[in-house]
Fold this sequence. Notes:
Layout: H1 2-36, H2 38-45, H3 48-65, H4 74-77, H5 88-103, H6 108-123, H7 132-141, H8 143-149, H9 159-195
Helix pairs in contact: 1-2, 1-5, 1-6, 1-7, 1-8, 3-9
Amino acid sequence: GAGAQAGSRQRGFLLGLTYGGAMAFVYGVLGLIVVLTASTFGTINASPWFNLGIAVLFVVLALAMFDVLVIDFSSLGSRFKPGASRGSMALAFTMGAVAALLAGACVAPVVIQVVLLASNLYATGTSAALALPFFLGIGMAIPWPIAGAGLASLPKPGPWMVRVKQAFGVLILGTAVYYGYLAYGLFADRFVDSAE
């Protein structure tokens, strides 16, 4: 009846809230770590092997967006339902944390920009800048409670989603080219330095 449907929506909302909260937590903690260890991160980022590894990872992710490779975590998601077992809140939190890490490739330009801004503000003595990565995570988490409640106003799946996925594939491939170019430049600089 109506009561069962309302309970199901409330449960879905709580699962979505837990899932989104995990995303916000992961983005916030990782951003905080990068801001507080900016010098170490800068050293790692200056390694040509690190940039080459990131470029290869982004190529793999882009190929998945074009359906050349299949990266499918839907079997894990099948347990993310309003009527799931008692442990589903923990599962929702775990899946949200994993999703935040996987989605990092898609939103890398935004994440990097926020982290750089937070690092610069923190370096100038603005301690409140440490909260910026958490705000980014909260912004990315907002749709999940709504989706969990099953509101009908959400866009319906269809062929347009394939085009959106391919557009993200192009963006990820462009990012792979960028990191590949950085790696090439760093390798070239090392070769020139050792030749002198």
